[in-house]
Amino acid sequence: MLFALTSSTWDGLSDGVAILIIAALLLVGLFLGYALRGLVGRWQAESIEKRMKLREEESEAEIKARQKEAAISARAVVVRAKEEFEASTKKRRAELQAIEDRQTQREANLDRKAAALDARETAVAAKAEAADTAARDATAKNAAADARLQELAKMTHADARREILVQANAELRADAAILSRRIQEAAREQGEAIAARIVADAVQRCAVSHVNELTTSAVTLPGAEMKGRIVGRDGRNVRAFESATGVQLLLDDAPDSVVLSSFDPMRREIARRALEALVADGRIQPSTIENAVAAARASVARTTEERGAEAAAEAGVPGLPVEILRLVGALGFRLSFSQNVLRHSVEVALLSGAMAAEMKLDAALARRVGFLHDIGKAITAEKRGAHAALGAEFLLAHGEDPKVCAAVAAHHADAGTDGGVYGVICAAADAISSARPGARQENVGDYIQRLENLEKIAKSHAGVQHVFAVQAGRDLRVVVDPAVVADNAASELAGEICRDISAQLKFPGMIRVTVIRELRCVEYAK
Q1: Would the pLDDT of 251 be above 80?
Q2: For the chain, what is the largest distance between any 2 Cα atoms, rounded to a whole number of angstroms?
Q3: Which residue, 95, 145, 197, 347, is most buried by CB atoms nearer than 10 A?
Q4: Residue 9: what pLDDT?
């Protein structure tokens, strides 16, 4: 309608009025649009506010419902906890009541027992008083009796006690001597049987031959003129040879030989080889003598190493260093009571291994100890000291097992060290190898001196009447005075003599001491 009005009246209006009308219409349209927009916005705000209030009311209703449920649940929990607490309290009260009842019963029982104890203590006190009275009476009577006995015996308590101790000591010593003799006899019978079997088996399997050497060596000459060459002008060759070798030349014994004399078998062997080389060469003068002696030393060094290796292989002792093999090989040129020390070492090694195997021990370790036990004898010419200690020191310095070194150091009883069971085995094997028939020889002077020393040691003991050394000094018969040496003291005397012999003498093998106590009663009928 407005549009129709505008279009019908447009033509009759002026342009300015038309513009005003249009502007007025636009303003009215804008106002109406703004009013409409405000109404719509207000309506939307009211609608949102209503929805918010509705949600708030619903939330409050839900919160109240949940609070109500929570209150109901809390009341239920409180009621349940209250019921449980009442039940627990009731149960605890019942337990306390039972405990109180038992305590009451126990107190009643204790009261009854206390009353019984009081009655018993009263009775005991009465009996104790009666016992004290009886004891005093008995003490008085004993004192009177004791005084009476001392008066009759004319002896105090101390004298009687001393007399009893003397008698008891004499009886105990006699019993101890008898028991000791029985134990020694039983142990000797059993030990000798076992030891004899082990030793006999070892000796039968392991005995080796010995080479007995002297202190001289002879070199055969091709002719008498060679002896003149050896002597040289004014004896200079002889002097040069003896100075280089340390061996004495004996030229007057035979026309076709020269004798080399020295107590050192190593030097004697070097001199023999050097002299044979000089005789074979024919040129004998101080310069060639020095060269020949140097070559002989090198040859002997190789020989000693080879001998040491061969002996180690024969004894079953592998893995020895060259230094030890060379020193062991040098033992082949040394003697002990005319017994070759290297062969003796091999025999001791085999004996030690056999005995260790019989006793379920390490046979290889025992053989090693036995093979190296006398290695110190090759050092004694350069150092002073016991060969056992020197050998152990040398072996330890060259990386040998400490067990082997300790056993080597202890294979002699006077070493003062503990070599364990292998040291004992080595000492036994050493004694067997030295004492078996044909192993060692002794000159007449040493033999007679040893017999005299044995008799002198035995006669130094009280009660000894006669001493007889028989079986080449291996059996000592001691005859005692029966009035001085009691029967039970004979075994003690034999032990004392054995200890003195072991401490004062050095001898191969062992010596048996037999004490003979004989009481002869002779009467004549007339």
Answers
A1: no
A2: 218
A3: 347
A4: 52
d(C-alpha 333, C-alpha 311), whole Å:
13
pTM: 0.46
Strand positions, DSSP E, 430-485: 464-470, 475-480
The CA-CA-CA angle for residues 307, 312, 314, to 5°, reads 95
Q: Which long-range contacts (CB under 8 A, 24 or more apart) does 199-206 make?
A: 199/355, 199/428, 199/432, 201/354, 201/358, 202/350, 202/351, 202/354, 202/355, 202/358, 202/429, 202/432, 203/351, 203/432, 203/436, 205/350, 205/354, 206/347, 206/350, 206/351, 206/353, 206/354
* Residue appearing with tokens 């006995």: 149
User: Encoding tokens for residue 401?
Assistant: 């097992």
Reply yes or no on whether the pLDDT at 438 is more than 70: no
Q: How far is CA 51 from the centre of its chain?
A: 101
* Alpha helix segments (H runs only) across 207-285: 224-231, 236-245, 265-281
DSSP state of 248: E
> Residue 374's pLDDT is what?
83
Buried b / exposed e over 216-229, threshold 16 CB at 10 Å, is ebebebeeeebbeb
Q: Which residues have a Cβ under 8 Å from the Cβ of 222 and sit 6 or more positions away?
A: 279
Distances (CA, A) of 133 to 119, 120, 128, 130, 395: 22, 20, 8, 5, 82
Weakest mean pLDDT among 307-311, 425-429, 438-442? 438-442
Q: Which amino acid is at 160?
A: A
Looking at the chain, how many residues does it have? 526
Pairing of strands 512-517, 475-480: parallel
**In the structure encoding, which two tokens stand for residue 483, read together?**
């009035």
Instruction: Classify the C-alpha dihedral 309-315-316-319 as positive or negative.
Output: negative
Query: Would you state the pLDDT for residue 512?
Result: 85
Tokens 């050095």 belong to 506
Q: Is pLDDT at 186 greater than 50 in this prediction?
A: yes
The mean per-residue pLDDT over the stretch 180-189 comes to: 69
> Across all residues in the chain, what is the average pLDDT?
79
SS3 360: coil
pLDDT value of residue 2: 41
Question: Rounded to whole angstroms, what are the CA distances from 367 to 196, 311, 335, 348, 406?
Answer: 20, 12, 21, 8, 14
- At 296-334, the pLDDT tens digits run 888 888 888 888 888 888 888 888 888 888 888 888 877
The DSSP output letter for 333 is G
| Contact indicator for 507, 430 with CB cutoff of 8 Å | no
pLDDT at residue 210 in the model: 43
Q: Give SS3 for 340.
A: strand
Residue 505 CB contacts under 8 Å (≥ 6 apart), including other chains: 450, 453, 454, 457
Contact 446, 476 (CB under 8 A): no
Average pLDDT over residues 266-294: 83
Cβ atoms of 296 and 280 within 8 Å: the answer is no
Q: Count the neighbouring beta carbons within 10 Å of the beta carbon of residue 167.
A: 10
